[in-house]
Amino acid sequence: MRLRHIAKALPIIEESPFVEHDPKSLKGKWKERFGNDHPIHIEVGMGKGKFITSLAMLNPDINYIGIERADSVLFRALQKQQELQLPNLVLILLNADELALVFGREEVDRIYLNFSDPWPKDRHALRRLTSERYLNIYRQILSTAGRVEFKTDNKGLFDYSITTAPSSGWNVLDVTYDLHHSIYSEGNVMTEYEERFSSEGNPICRAVFTCNS
Ligand code: SAM
Question: What is the pTM of this model?
Fold first, then answer.
């Protein structure tokens, strides 16, 4: 994502009640934070937040946590949440490397990875959010029946991901190379990137990873 630095973003984020400022203190206690027993779904690399705010509006009985490491980008999601004030949505400024410090074992029921940075060079493969390094982190926080849902327009990243996941002990399900013309399109909520790439005629790839070990 091309980043335009927004100087006022960080001070506004730091003051916002819609952002969790000490997420590590909530490890194992997120249900208390939301004040209910609803499932917890997170989006890692949420970007400007269209996807997660839409899901939070559609599903009031699910708690959503939007995770983004770039403050100028999270700020755009925060602006949406400031308008919507959704009680079932919390934002966190965090690098995915730290997910296991923020969530306890089996605390998360679903992880969305949407249009993750592809890092095309082999020497950067471990930076991909579907590399074995990150899959091992997701395994620590996902519930037994939990799943990772992954969408991208980048076929190279997609093929890498659906190959890496099984070799890291995950099951790969519901694979499509053209989500919008597949049986999985019903109920699909588009992200900012998805809208842009699909309007340019690019097919969207999508797969689900589950892990029962
Ligand atoms: N998911 C959004 C969408 O589909 O429109 C944004 C996609 S954008 C290409 C990828 C986003 O992931 C960027 O906003 C980037 O800052 C964020 N990101 C990349 N690596 C991350 C990491 N390790 N931890 C948290 N966020 C990350």
Answer: 0.97
